[in-house]
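Example record

One chain of 467 residues, shown exactly as stored in the release files.
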Amino acid sequence: MTLGETKNEADVTCSNKTSGDEESSFEAKSLRSKESDEPFGDESESEIKYKIMTWCGNEYVAKLPRQTNGTSQWLLMPGKVMIAETISLGILSLPSVLAEIGMVGGVILILGLGALATYTGYVIGQFKMAYPQVHNMADAGMIMLGPMGREIFGIAQMLFIVFIMGSHILTFSIMMNTLTSHATCTIAFGLAGLVVSLLCSLPRTLHKVSYMAVASFVSIIAAVLITMIGVGVERPGHNIIQATVNKSFPKAFLATINIVFAYAGHVGFFTFISEMKQPKEYTKALYLLQGANVSMYLMVAVVIYHYAGADVSSPALGSTSGILPKLAYGVAMPSIVIAGVINGHVAAKYCYVRLFRGTGKMGQRTWGSFARWAVIVTLLWSMAWVIAEAIPVFNDLLGLISALFASWFTYGLSGVFWLFLNYGRYRDNKRTLALTALNVLVFLLGLFIVSLGSFPGERRCVEEQGD
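Predicted structure tokens for this chain:
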């Protein structure tokens, strides 16, 4: 099913404009977006065009030699931008999750939360199709709750992404400490990560960022393969695994919500769809992402935990000995940087669109328009660096931000989106009744995670800081 078919499922008006549309009801008008309501407006005269990404490439693919089209199309499709954003730091914490809660519980949660994340991602696509003017979570909040919703959702989205950016700077510091055997202080490595990430974030379009996403995906795959082969040869855990583990609730729950973080790419989905030439093709990118997510997460978590045992490191790249951790971190460097850059791009694009939407300045290729973007990027990465220095514990940082934000953006809010789209039709038939129950449970899941997960995560961070 494509998003073009969600009209029946959501039962909302997204029809093409006709000469009689101006006389239709207020409800129908509110669901329709004029061209001026699009995040980037009319780009026909713009020097910089944003809405050029398609499922199989971009508008420039047709100009390439025929024999190169297939490769170029794959390299430019938005699905791999979503993969590069999502499959990075999350996958590095999953083997330790299995060590904390056991093999059986970990596998069930990876599969179950992955399947649910696929559905909630699909609902985000439904909402975008119903309201094409939505570019970010703040826009969705504006539609549902007015100005207050826009500010609440916008602040939450920015906090979440800046925390993610901070986790990438933190991982960069860990990587450099490993590569150099602590040749200098961690603060200096953090500053180096800040500068590298900032420079890579200067391109203003996702089209250009997509080129870097290829290197990110290839590097994280190579790094985890090196780690899996290394632990398979060394067997530091002596093949001792536990089906279940008795842990205190704070430790077990904090480990569990690291799985939520592994599926936390949803916060950027509105932005990605907004820069697709054909938003209906978003479902293809989503299914590619989730298929890659679930299969890779399961394989990496199980294999590394099986051979590394209960003392598996987090990030998992440090689970081997000798030269292998340095090799794995060196290979993973592009992913550690670029996945953070993609998240940083989403945060910067939110500010950029919020400030200059409808002004025409975003489409200008001038030093002034570039300087505005550069200032926004610099401020955001500076805040991320402060967070990375304040919470220098990888697992605890991931657990805290997952509980506070990822639970809502990946699960809870999607339930709210569906209920909003189908308001007044919850009991139309058995199917909508079942979907209503499902989305209420999705909302409650988000509420459950943020309520019970934030306190253990905060306490663990404070305890580690005290130590």
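Notes: The mean pLDDT is 81.
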